Amino acid sequence: MRRKKFLYLAVAVVVLTALVVGIYTVAAPSWSVPRSVHYQGRLTDRAGNPVTGTHDITFRIWDSESGGTSPLWEETLTLNLQADGYFSVALGKTTGHEITDSILEGGRRWLGVEVDTTGELSPRQEIHSVPYALKAGESAAIAVGADLDNGLIGGNRIADVINYLQTQITALQDDSCPSGYTHDTSRTDITLCRRGLDEMVKVGDFWIDRYEAIIVDETYWNGGRCDGSGNAYGSTSDNWSSVIISFPFTGNWSSKLYACSKSGVMPSRWMTWFQAQQALSASGKHLCTNEEWQAAVAGTPDNSSDCNISGSGPRNTDSASNCVSKWGAFDMIGNLWEWVAMWGQAGPDSGVGAGAYAGTVGSGRGWDGFSPETSGDGDGTWNLAGAAWGCDRNGSNCEYKIGVPFAAIRGGGWYYGAQAGAFALALDVGPSHRHSSIGMRGCLR
Q1: 243 backbone dihedrals φ, ψ, rounded to 5°
Q2: Dist CA 359 CA 350 (whole Å)
Q3: Going edge to edge, which strands form the sheet with 37-45?
Q4: Is the C-alpha dihedral spanning 225, 227, 231, 232 positive or negative?
């Protein structure tokens, strides 16, 4: 009895070179990517013996794993099988039997195989795509020093593409700035980092906002670039009203607001410590610690001709062009008091705070100028019965509240005169307090 032949795939390799590969060249022809199915197999009988001689093998492409009466594509090849029964064919290369895009589009495809007229073998094999690579014996070249103005990559000048890539590579290799920021190497005196219009400067092993911050919505923040068309809040006392329900003074927000360090704008104020903390956290920053703030203020002049310490109100960021620290941070003295991360317990009255001094340390007095007679050392302990200044949610009924901790503010405001300075420190306002003279800036490590 004649033994039925069947196809045994010793090497089950079905590859489809159907990926579209874009090859951009300069002054060189574009190359088409061939679409073909390369198929390798071995034909044996039921006993596993190789089938030899000449046979007609029909290949069909189907849109289903089984069944159907009308294949999407079909080709019959006459093969002369050698002693081992192996064969290798490239399907779709015969004129009139090309594998076009329409055959492969629209979903999964399977390849069916029939030997002579014995019926299609089962199961069909699913066709998968693999990348196609073109290797040229001699490719187009650009001479060193050649003019690249006329060469294009995706519609862009090659020279522009190269410059962009070099800029990105340099930014990735430069650890002078936080992730997402670009080092502005035009400033050699400071380490200036930009992310769109958001600016920070490096201070030792951390970064600080270059300017007193503004609080903005997500549209304005624009992924941290701070160049969107959205809204900023807190430049006046009344423009919090539209967001105060979703971003309340308690910091228990339901909608995020963000913080930007941007030149030429009125910094935000009238925010509580909690709001400042949350806006900075949403932006990937944090309220500066007292130690970070103290390091960053170094070198800032403290006279009224340079800094806004005897003015009639706050000014736009970078308006005081000389009020800059040696690290490159603006307005750390005057303009607005700035929240820092430090909390503590104030003393029993407005004269004593943190077991030391609850008032303001002017620029003319260093820490060694303290004495019990002038600063009120208190009992030198954290006084749990202490008080801190606070108001109601409308900014009224302000008084020292017994048992309320303080949150430190630094630098002095626009009205503080000689008391504003690098050592200006107030420890007598509660974290829920808000005022027209209190703002913020962020730090990042």
Answers
A1: -125, 5
A2: 8
A3: 5-16, 37-45, 86-91
A4: positive
Question: Which pLDDT score is estimated for 39?
Answer: 87
Domain covering 178-445: architecture: Alpha-Beta Complex (3.90)
Inter-residue contact 43 to 87 (CB < 8 Å): yes
Contacts of 41 (CB under 8 A, 6+ apart): 7, 8, 9, 10, 11, 12, 86, 87, 113
Same fold, 5-126 and 178-445: no
5-126: CATH topology is: Immunoglobulin-like (2.60.40)
Q: How far apart are CA 129 and CA 20, in angstroms?
A: 11
Which is it for strands 125-126 and 110-115: parallel, antiparallel or unpaired?
antiparallel
Query: pLDDT grade, residue 146 (50/70/90)?
Result: low
Provide the token pair at 181: 């920021």
Confidence check: pLDDT of 383 > 50: no
Going by the DSSP 8-state scheme, the letter that residue 283 receives in this structure is: T
Give the number of other CB atoms < 10 A from CB of residue 121: 16
Nearest Cα residue to 19 out of 38, 39, 35: 35
Tracing tokens 């009205």 back to the chain, one arrives at 415
| Six token digits for residue 90 | 């490239």
Closest of 214, 236, 234 to residue 226, by C-alpha: 214
Contact of 251 with 272, CB cutoff 8 Å:
yes
Task: Tell me how far apart the alpha carbons of residues 283 and 221 are, in angstroms, rounded to a whole number.
Answer: 9
d(CA 315, CA 264): 9
Q: In the prediction, which pLDDT does 141 show?
A: 55
In the structure encoding, which two tokens stand for residue 396, read together?
Answer: 């009224």
Q: In DSSP terms, which residues pair with 125 in a beta bridge?
A: 111
CA distances from residue 99 to 60, 95, 137, 378, 420 in whole angstroms, order as listed: 11, 10, 27, 91, 80
- For 208, the 3-state DSSP assignment is strand
Selection from 91-95, 271-275, 367-371 with the highest mean pLDDT: 271-275
On whether the CB atoms of residues 397 and 421 are closer than 8 A, the answer is no
**How far apart (Å, rounded) are the C-alpha atoms in residues 16 and 31?**
18
Q: Dump pLDDT digits (tens) for 189-248.
A: 999 999 999 999 999 999 999 999 999 999 999 999 999 999 999 987 667 888 888 888
What are the residue ranges spanned by the domains of the chain? Answer: 5-126, 145-173, 178-445
User: Residue 245, class by beta-carbon neighbours within 10 Å (0-12 exposed, 13-18 middle, 19+ buried)?
Assistant: exposed
